[in-house]
Amino acid sequence: MSEWDITTEEGWSDKLGKLLEEADTVGDAVADRKALSRRFVQFILRSRPNTEAIKALDVIANEARRSVLISAIDDRVAAISDRTAELVLLTKGIEETTANAEKAAQSIRLENAQGAVDGLAQSVKSIKALAASMKDADDEQVRTSLENALKTLINLKKKVQAVADAV
Amino acid sequence: MDRKSARILLLVISLSAACTALPEVGSFADATIELNAALKTGGATAVAELKAIDADKQAKDLAAAWTVRDKTGVALVAYGESLRAIVDAGNQGKESAGKLIDSVTGLATAAGITIPGSSAALAVAGDTARFIYGQISLMRSAKSLEAALDAAEPAVTRIAEVLAKDLRQAGEIFDLAMTELEDSIQTEEEMQVRLGYRMALTDERGALYALDLSTISDLRKRIHELMKQDAATLTAEEKKELAKIREEEANLTAAEARLIEIQALIKATDQWHDPLEARLAEIRKRQRVGIAFFAAAVATTTRWAAAHDRLIQAVKERRPYSAQSLMEAAVQVRELTGRMREL
Known about the structure:
The complex is a heterodimer.
Chain A: H1 9-25, H2 30-46, H3 52-82, H4 84-108, H5 111-136, H6 139-166
Helix pairs in contact in A: 1-2, 1-3, 2-3, 5-6
Chain B: H1 3-18, H2 26-52, H3 56-91, H4 93-111, H5 119-186, H6 189-209, H7 216-228, H8 236-316, H9 324-342
Helix pairs in contact in B: 1-5, 2-3, 2-5, 2-8, 2-9, 3-5, 4-5, 5-8, 6-8, 7-8, 8-9
């Protein structure tokens, strides 16, 4: 005889009572939750006749069924959220290590030295242009050239400083 | 420095560099990219399924928490790339030195400075400088790689533990949400009435099958035999038997008729039941693929941390490094990620 061979409203009401008791004590395992939800589905599909009383039982069963699954979801979302703060800190640690590793790679690639030399080359070019403009140009050209030379030298200072810091 | 000293220096550098072969970290960095993709897909998938079952609060909370996981994934990819950059920088030391020498030469030319010595001698000096820096960069790279790996190790280990737990629980959330989706479709008000009706029919059909209708023809033959005889010649036992098998035959005939009727009724429900089954089958397929995807993502996370440990040992012991098992897991998770996106 199947557990669903029930013929009276009282019988279905008792059956729902037992299922609700199971819902109160069901374990946290996903398989247990899914199995219980499926039993509530069986209850809803098999309970008959479709009187108002049976329909009311079905409504309760359906709410309980969803609750069995959603409460398990709630627990897991909460557990994931609880680990978030720790993960933020750990991620910062990794970012710091990454920044240091990137600096090391740049240093091995001689990027700072390369930058300093490139800056120096630009200075030479600017100063040459200044010298040329001072020979036969008007004041405006001289001023522009001086401004460019100055900017270049400021950039060069920064590059040289970076090299000094790296050393 | 005199020539002899320079030769000794070159020899020392050469011998040191020979022991400083850099490990191939590209596969680790590539697997980290796959891990990040799996992490992103895992979170997005679980959140999407929560929305699909109208669990809006849970979807919002999980999405907020997973934003941090996404950032962690990006940080891990950057970390993997920084390891790759160190190794590449070490392997390309000669080129870096060459580029710098060319720039210095260009600068001297622009400034009108004449570098003493013949052009052939300058070329030899440049080649030597390139070679020496090539070896130095290998050693610097090995040292920097070891420092980076050591510094990251505690965080990497713990991050992998946390992410493995997160992915496992996100997989469970996905599984539970898919179950809710499937079960809620069956318990919709209209659908539960229809399914209840079909279930009652199939239960009744099952009960009728249990009657063994195949005996009906034998019963009919026996009735026919008994009926052929003159009723007055039938013994009391035969009369009793006839009454019994007539009743049995009538019951089975009614059952047979009911079975035909039920089969027709069940067939009539196929019109709505077939599309429902197709819909549920799609959900179950997605659920199976999703469960496999999350299991693979958890396995990849664990293997990723183990591969990081092995990489540290390989760098310390100056021995070759292989990330084959990690790559296998990464390939599997990539395939499943693709399938998840298709479904």
